[in-house]
Amino acid sequence: MARRRQLYEGKAKILFEGPEPGTIVQYFKDDATAGNGAKSGVITGKGVLNNRISEHLMLRLQEIGIPTHFIRRINMREQLVKEVEIIPLEVVVRNIAAGSIAKRFNIEEGTRLPRAIVEFYYKNDALGDPLVSEDHIIAFGWACPHDLEEMTGHAMRVNDFLCGLFAGIGIQLVDFKLEFGRQWDGDDSHIVLADEISPDNCRLWDTHTSEKLDKDRFRRDMGSVKEAYQEVARRLGILPEEGNGSDLKGPEAVQ
Ligand code: 5GP
């Protein structure tokens, strides 16, 4: 296979030039980092699981009319996506206090918030992705008011839909992070959901036991990280019941 041009390597994914103009191949790695790179490791099989989970969720969101960058999954670790201009913001939606909001306002983890809260963080590793206001975003030109309105609207719809989807499989959607991109059509642009949606960027708790089924298991050294991701995939119906992960090995699974 001809080697493709690598465009970017992030903490959990590599982006390659796609086969047609305006497309990109997203390769899901097994690498995991936390605390802005302070902690790193490899979770064998994570990339394969996240590729499948994100494909499933993006397709379900497209069915309800959320525009996304997802085109199709290519193989175990890769998916074809539309090339978009990434907006340098992390859009976080929270239903239950956990992680940074619990710390910032001294709220006990697990406390249900009065309503869903949308937050914006400026994507900048050197600054540690600081929380920003809508005024910062507009004043510094990271997005215009119309983009912001579209992102907030999409984020709330994604939250409503995913809360229901996960509730149906015994999982509470505590919070999650989205990234959006701008897709140009001549002089016009519109906002599409980009990146991935997976246990790497969602907090997912078992409804009955509150067991964590997400990347906090890695961040907090709780162990059984891959097993938790597998459990999410199994409940979503995208992993055979008896799946033991033997099909989720390393790069040899790419073909
Ligand atoms: P927190 O602000 O509490 O650390 O994170 C809120 C939610 O957004 C969590 O579900 C977390 O997984 C996700 N999130 C926030 N920032 C990042 C990030 O830089 N990378 C990833 N993978 N997830 C993030």
Describe the structure in your own words.
The chain has 255 residues and is α+β, with helices and mostly antiparallel strands. The chain has two domains: 77 residues, Phosphorylase Kinase, domain 1 (2-Layer Sandwich); 140 residues, D-amino Acid Aminotransferase, Chain A, domain 1 (2-Layer Sandwich), CATH 3.30.470. It is built from six helices and 14 strands. Strands 8, 9, 10, 11, 12, 13 and 14 form a seven-stranded antiparallel β-sheet that branches. Strand 6 and strand 7 form a beta hairpin. Helix 1 runs parallel beside helix 6. The C terminus is likely disordered. Guanosine-5'-monophosphate (5GP) binds next to strand 9, helix 2, strand 12 and strand 14.
Annotate the secondary structure layout.
Elements: E1 6-9, E2 13-17, E3 23-28, E4 31-34, E5 39-42, H1 46-63, E6 70-73, E7 78-82, E8 85-86, E9 89-96, H2 99-104, E10 112-122, E11 131-132, H3 134-139, H4 145-167, E12 171-185, E13 188-194, E14 202-206, H5 216-219, H6 225-235
Antiparallel strand pairs: 1-2, 2-3, 3-7, 4-5, 6-7, 8-12, 9-10, 9-12, 10-11, 12-13, 12-14
Summary tags:
255 residues, alpha+beta, Phosphorylase Kinase, domain 1, D-amino Acid Aminotransferase, Chain A, domain 1, 2 domains, five-stranded antiparallel β-sheet, globular, binds guanosine-5'-monophosphate
Task: Give the helix proportion (percent range).
Answer: 25-40%
Helix/strand order, N-terminal first: EEEEEHEEEEHEEHHEEEHH
Number of domains: 2
Q: What amount of the residues lies in strands?
A: 25-35%
CATH superfamily of the largest domain: ATP-grasp fold, B domain
Main sheet makeup: 7 strands, antiparallel
Can you tell me the CATH architecture of the largest domain?
2-Layer Sandwich
User: Strand pairing plus helix content: what structural class?
Assistant: alpha+beta
Oligomer: single chain
